[in-house]
Every structure is written in structure tokens, then in C-alpha cells.
Amino acid sequence: MSLDKIKTVLSRELAELGEKRPLKGEETVIMGVKEAAGNRGPRYFLEGYGDREFLRMNSNSYLGLALKKEVIAEMEKAARKFGAGPGAARFISGTYQPHVALEKRLARFHNREAGMIFSSAYATVMGVLTTLISQDTSVISDELNHNCIINAIRLARPGDKKVYSHNSMDELATGIKECTGRGQRVIIVTDGIFSMRGDHAALPEIADLAEKYAPEFEEGILTVIDDSHGVGAVGETGRGTIELTGEDRIDIIVGTLGKAMGVNGGYLVSDTTIIEYLREKAPSYVYSNPITVAEASAALKALDIVDSDAGKKLLRYLQEGAGYFRKGLMALGYEVIKGEHPIIPLMVRDTGKTTRLVKYLKDNGILVTGISYPVVPRGDDEIRFQICADHTRSDLDYVLEVLKSFDG
């Protein structure tokens, strides 16, 4: 069957998209990793660049656990014992002991009754929201929430949907009041750490509003936080935005094992009844394979590290490094967004200049991510730097020195 007609349509749409913003284009392919040595953190080898080494400043592996030998060893051990993949969805015969152990460990880590793991945090959010949202549900969402939240709400088709300006508690309160009489339950959903900015949700104020207005709705108000960038990166013990803000009244916490934990997969923790319901109903859980047993075992080891004195030391070093780099950017005259998170957006506010700066940094052996509309609002073009615990002070000083010489 000929694809000529559809290829013509798709090619035209790609061309139109390219006129609006830079296309992502070919993906960077990592060919190998050079271990940290001396005053230099890990370096990466890219396809097409031979033996040239690159410093990676756009990794989500905030604690550097993806390269920890003990995490890798645990993954290898489990793969030899259980095989490369689970071979089935959970309810058939795809549940292994490390899956169960990991869910219990995550629940304890977050001080919740129960937990469940998904193939990714994206799949977790899609499963949670599409299952809990009905025509009798009103959903209220922060305007800067992640794409997974936006798409989950679209797919779920709630009875009423409202979007409030970023972190505007006045608009959130107004939105809740406007939902009165329009449905049986309200779901307030927000990122914990906002992935494009590195700032965090006002969780105490959100919880206060949910508590205040819950009696107005037959099924109350449910609060949901996607803290994928927060867990393992902020808080004294890495418990994320809940710990950072001191707010423990959030009903459902979604997290990821693929960022600070250095492995792969997503999860949520909550009340036992909610978990039992989602195991029966969430399609991205019921009809999909879980993460591999090797990944679950590696995640358990990563959690052990985070929950140890060594983990607290890594967290302190990470947070100190983020503060050091943020101050360095400001000293050079760059605009940054304030925050405690290792996501540090350098606000360029010009699409063309953002593209040139990404190329300039890559020419100097530094990998970064440039972000423009529609991922961020027009005029919020940025370079998103992400500090990790395996970056050395020498690494950070090198990046600052290169940025000092950029002339636009």
C-alpha cells in the first residue's frame, strides 16, 4: 500500500512546524561513558564525534546513581537470577518479588500506606488521572504542569476543567468555588518541582484550600502531585517537595525512578484503598508490562543509598553545587529563576539566541538543552542546566568560564 499521500501531508506539517520553532531533529546518540577521575566528573562520547569528550549538563540523574557501581551490580545480579524481562503484565505472571519489595519500600520512604510501580512516571500520571477522573469530576491544574498531566486530563474528559496561573492561589481558590455544584469531586493536580523552571508548587496553600472547600463536594477534594523532579533532589533526606515545603497532606504522590534514582520506571504512593482501586482500573498498569526485575532491584539499592548517611552527603553536595552554579550565572549577568532545585534555567528569551548558545556550548564540549515555545510560553526561551552530584566544582567552573566568553 502506497504511503505517498500521507507522506506528503506529514512532510508539509513538519515544514510548517519548523517555521514556528526549531525541530528537535536527529537525536544525540551516546556511544560510551568515561568514568569520573580527579577533578573531572563523567564524560560522554557521542556518535560522530570520535574520541571527543562531552560534559553532560542536561541529565536527570541528579545524584549520579546511574553510574554507581553498587546500583549496576544489583541490576546485573537480578538479571542473572530472573532474566532480562518480566515476560507478562502484573496480573498475569509478571509480578516478581523485587516488584513487591520495591512498592513496599517506596511507601515507607514517603510515609504512605501503599505504593505501586508503573513503566514510567508518564504512564503513572496517565493511569492515575484517567482512572480517577469522571464526568462528575472537576479538575484544576497549574498552567505550567508537565505534558503528561495535560494529556491525561484531555484523555479523561472531566466534567469541568480549570487552569490557574502558575502558583496563583487566588485563582486556584476562585476555580474551586466556581466548581461548586458542578460535580461530586474535585481533583487539584500540580507538579511538585516544575521541570522547565526548577521552582516548586505552594503545597501548604494548596492543601489548605483543599481542606477548606472539601465539605462543599460530595466526594471531597483530592490533591495529586507529580514530584518526579523533586524526589531525590530536594529536601534534607530527598523526600522531595513534600519535605521541602513541610506539607504532608497531599493525597497522591507520583514519582519516578528514572531521574534522581538513576534507574527507570514510575510509581505512586497513597492510601491503601486508592492503590487497590488503581490496580484494578488503571489501564497503563493493568495492560502493560512492569519495569524489569533488574530495574526494580537496582531501584531498591538506589533507595538504600538515598536513605543513608552517604545519600544525605550526596544531597548536600548536590544542593551546594546548584547554589554555587546559580550564583555564578548571576555574577556573569545572566538571568536565572530563583529556586532550591538543581534545575537552573538560564533565561535567554530569544529563540535564535537560544539555538546559538546551545551550539556554542556543544562546540566547547558541553551538552545542554535549549527550550523554546511551545514547551515554554513565548518569550521564556531558556537553556535548562541540570546540576548533578557527579559534577565537580572544576566542571561547573569550566561551564561558567565558557559562558563568560559567549558574545551572542
Structural summary, described in words:
The protein has 408 residues and is of the alpha/beta class. It folds into 2 domains: 69-306, Type I PLP-dependent aspartate aminotransferase-like (Major domain) (Aspartate Aminotransferase, domain 2), CATH 3.40.640; 310-408, Aspartate Aminotransferase, domain 1 (Alpha-Beta Complex), CATH 3.90.1150.10. It has helices at 4-20, 69-82, 90-94, 97-109, 121-132, 147-156, 169-179, 203-213, 241-245, 272-281, 283-286, 293-306, 309-331, 351-363, 393-404, and strands at residues 30-34, 43-46, 55-56, 114-118, 137-142, 160-164, 185-191, 221-226, 252-256, 266-270, 343-347, 366-367, 369-371, 382-386. It has a 7-stranded mixed β-sheet, sandwiched between helices. It has a 3-stranded antiparallel β-sheet with strand order 11-14-13, covered by helices on one side. A two-stranded antiparallel ribbon has the order 1-2. The radius of gyration is 22 Å and the shape is globular.
What is the terminal separation in angstroms? 49 Å
What is the CATH class name of the largest domain? Alpha Beta
What structural class is derived from the secondary structure elements? alpha/beta
Q: What is the CATH superfamily of the largest domain?
A: Type I PLP-dependent aspartate aminotransferase-like (Major domain)
Strand share of the residues? 15-25%
Main beta-sheet annotation: 7 strands, mixed
Low-confidence stretches: none
| Helix-strand string | HEEEHHHEHEHEHEHEHEEHHHHEHEEEH
Radius of gyration: 22 Å
Q: Work out the number of β strands.
A: 14
Shape: globular
In DSSP terms, counting alpha (H) and pi (I) runs of 4 or more, how many helices?
A: 15
Overall helicity? 40-55%
Question: Order of strands across the widest beta sheet?
Answer: 4-10-9-8-7-5-6
